[in-house]
Structures are given as structure tokens and as C-alpha cells.
Amino acid sequence: MTRVELYDTTLRDGAQTEGISYSVQDKLRITEKLDALGVHTIEGGWPGSNPKDGEFFRRAKRLRLARARLAAFGSTRRAATAARDPNLQALLRAQTQIVTIFGKSWDLHVHDVLKISLEENLKVIEESVAFLKRRGLRVIYDAEHFVDGYRDNPSYALKTVTVAREAGADTVVLCDTNGGSLPSDITAAVQAVQASLQAPLGIHTHNDGDLAVANALAAVGAGCTQVQGTINGYGERCGNANLVSLIALLKLKLGIDCLPDAKLRELTETSRYVAEVSNMAQHMHQPFVGSAAFAHKGGVHVNAVLKNPRTYEHMDPSAVGNQRRVLVSELSGRSSLVFKAKGLALDLSKETPQAKRLLRLLQGLEHRGYHFEAAEGSLELLLKRQLKRLTPFFTLEGFRVIMEKRDQRLTSEATIKLRVKGVVEQTAAEGDGPVNALDNAIRKALRRFYPTLSQMHLTDFKVRVLDEKAGTAAKVRVLIQSQDEHDSWGTVGVSENIIEASWQALVDSIEYKLLKDQKAEVGGQKTEGRKQKAEIGSQKAEGGKQKAGQTRLRRPARAS
Prior knowledge:
Layout: E1 5-8, H1 24-37, E2 41-45, H2 51-60, E3 69-75, H3 86-94, E4 98-104, H4 107-114, H5 118-133, E5 138-144, H6 146-152, H7 154-166, E6 171-176, H8 183-196, E7 201-205, H9 212-222, E8 226-229, H10 243-253, H11 261-264, H12 267-277, E9 295-296, H13 299-307, E10 325-326, H14 334-343, H15 353-368, H16 376-386, E11 395-406, E12 409-420, E13 423-431, H17 434-446, E14 457-465, E15 476-483, E16 488-495, H18 498-559
Parallel strand pairs: 1-2, 1-8, 2-3, 3-4, 4-5, 5-6, 6-7, 7-8, 9-10
Antiparallel strand pairs: 11-12, 12-13, 14-15, 15-16
Helix pairs in contact: 1-2, 1-12, 5-7, 6-7, 8-9, 13-14, 16-18, 17-18
């Protein structure tokens, strides 16, 4: 089985994503996560370009990495000599076993950017690589813009990588830096280098043509043994090759050894972890690891998948640590509804009148503007209410919201009256807005009855106008995302009144939290009951052994 080296550049190329700004601690956390996944080489940053990356390499020396090796990144020399170049000196100070430097392979860049002769550029590459090799380092040479350079001036592009290899580069990486090449362009470039150069080759692709992963796979097919990419495809402009997808494709589709099977099952969790540290929303439709990657909505699809997953799934989602999801919406059939109910431990058969009634109800609600795909908390509550499997935790007697503007300051106050466990609670609270005031008031009313609500908080609040032509009288949909220390869940409300829609979603978010806690408590009691039964059984067995022992002791006496 062919082995491919996984080279991650999330901390350098990925950090160039619009909206991402890693702290040193963020970079250290991601490094440890990539090491735990099994990535072979982690490019930590460009120590010669900014103080943060220099600090990262100083602190990274204290990391205890199990498998990965760190690489410091930089460019070929800019000074008159390599020994005096501050960028190369910074690479040495990083004290990594691996250094990666890039040089120009496209004559366009040599003329228009560096503004030196083609021969001088070859000298720059040669001296830079040789300088680092003499220090005993593994040198990876990134041939920047190689594919475009090879297309415009094949002989010169080949000279640049030949010079780098002859100067001691251990691996030569061919870069599609502008990201506009086709797989056929990549294959031709790799084959041309192989024909003229005996060296381990790598590939570095960008996604400007939405082909970064396909181009990287084409390069591997042509003979490259190192693939460079970023987690979730982060990177400048349209991003880099998504290393998450590459790992899954190399392992599952091409049978190429890049990660152990057990580590492959950590792929989804790693992708989401890096997204969280990067403060980026996880792309739900991301192949392999997105929450929608194995989500089925159409009734025909769901019916088939439940009979045989291969009908609409190209692989087992558990292989990458993901899971199948069945969405319930107006497009769903009874199969979807029954599958969802089964997952909630609800007794519902496809042919029963209940299933037909519930499906009509859901379709009607979605027609009115509800959106249960993004609000599975509200869906579970709805099903359990309809099937009489939910006892309300509280009931609303009424609420009032007052907004007042005084001295250029806008204030909101909510008064609420609830019945909780037979007790009437009435409280008032202020907030930054009417919804926040309602949230504060209901929590204040419920706090002494349900103290675990203090562990829950809202993480997202979205409002969508469903009929723009109705103007300010339009119906709106409110989606709320809530989270506690264990889970995250969505709830929904729809009304012509934004306060009422918000209230519906807010109440569902709280009731779902209380339902979760109730299930956890019942589960804990059952576990404790099983332990007690096991303990009693063990005591009985021990007592039986003692009786048996006593009997055996007495029998010889009776025989005599």
C-alpha cells in the first residue's frame, strides 16, 4: 500500500483566511489536536514574518507530540547572501527538524515581482536550500506557482525544481498557487517533473476553481507522496485543499495508507474542534464531516436508506466519526417520521392513524413557516406533546413587555406569571431588549424549581421575515440555538408578532433543557437500580456459596 505524507498548513496558510486570527494559544491547541489525529507534518507558521509565529515556535518546544513533526516556513533569501538573510536566520532560530521554503518557479513572478534575472533567481533558490541543508535540516522546497509557470515556460519551471533538488531539497512540492488549474494540468506537470527529476514530490493546491481536492488527488495518482492542505479547507481567497476530505478520500476511496482506521473515526470531531478554535461556523454541508453530509430529507430517500444505507450513502458515516440524520419536513414521508420517533423512544408505526395525523400536522406547520430541520429540540417536544408523552414543566398564565425610551436610553422590562408545580410565580426583569427581558424573567421565575437552568445559555438568535411583501405586518420565524455544558439544540417559533415568535422558541429551548435533564436523571436512576440489583445478586450468590460450603463441610460428618 502506497504511503502518503499528510502535511498540514492550517496554522500558516489557513491563518490567512478572512475572519480567522489565531492567538499563540489557539495555534498550540490546534497543533496538539492535529498530532492526536495522526498528521505527519504540521507547518507552524512563518517565524520571519511576525512576532506571534516566533513566539509559537518558542512555546511549541514544550509540547510533547506523539507523532507529528513541526515545520517552520519561510522564503528563499532576499539579502545578498543566505547567511545574512533575516528570514533564513529566523528559520534556524525556530529549531525545528523540518523547514519549508518557497521560491519562484514562474518567470512572470521573477520578472514582475522579484525584478531580477532568471539566472539570478536560480542562484537564489540554490543558495537558500544549500544553506539550510548544511545545518542538517530536512528541507521541503515549495515551488510556488509551478503549474502556471510550467504552462507558460516549461523549461524554466523545470530548471527551478532541478536546482532546488541538486542543492539538497529532500522533497519538492509543486504548487498551484493561483488555484485555477485543472486535474489534467496537474497530472501533466507532475509527470514532466518525474521524467526529469529523481525526488520525492508533494502537491500544494488552492481552491479558486473549486478543484483543490481533485487536483491533489490527480497529483497523488501521478506519483506525489506528500499532500499539503488545511483543515476544513481554510486559506486565502477560496481556500486551500481541504485536508479533511483528502484524508477520507485517500484512505477510503484509494486505499492509501495515511491514517490508522481508529484515527480516521476522529476526523469529524477534529474538523469541528478546529472550526471552534478558529471561531468559524462549521460548514454543515462539508463532505464527510458536515452535519448534513449524511442527512436525508426526501421521503423516497429515507425509505430506501432505512432498508439499505448504500442506496443513498456512498460510505458508512461512522468510518469518519459522523452519523446519519433523518430530517422531518414537508418533504418527508412517514418513514422519516417513524425513524425520528424511534430515535426518541416513541412507539409509532408507519401504518397507524397517528403517523398519518402527525405527518399532516408537520406539513401544515412547515407550510405556515416552521422549520424543524434547524429546530430538532422543538420537533421532539412537538412529537411528545402530540403523543401524550410530555408533562408540561410549567404553564404560562400571562406576560407583559414594556419598552421605554428615556434620556436617549431604551429599556425593556418583562413581567411574567407562571404556574410551576402547582405554585403561581410572578416576577419581573429588565433586559437589553424585549426578548432578553423575557428570557431573564422566565429564568428568574423558574430558578428555584429548576436550578440546572443556570447551566444553559443562548448562543444564536435569528429572525427571518417570511413574507417580505407584507412589510411590518409580515410573519416572522425565530430560530434560537441554546447550549449547556453537554449539548446544543435548536428551537423555533413563528408568528406575525416577533415577541410571540421569540417566546415560542424561548419556551421550547427551556423545556427541552428540562426534558434533557429529566431523561438524564431517569437514566441515572435506572443505572443505579441495575447496580443495586447486581449487588443484591452478588450477595445472594455469595450466600449460596457459603451455604454450599457449609453443606460440604457437614456431609463427611454424616457419612462417618
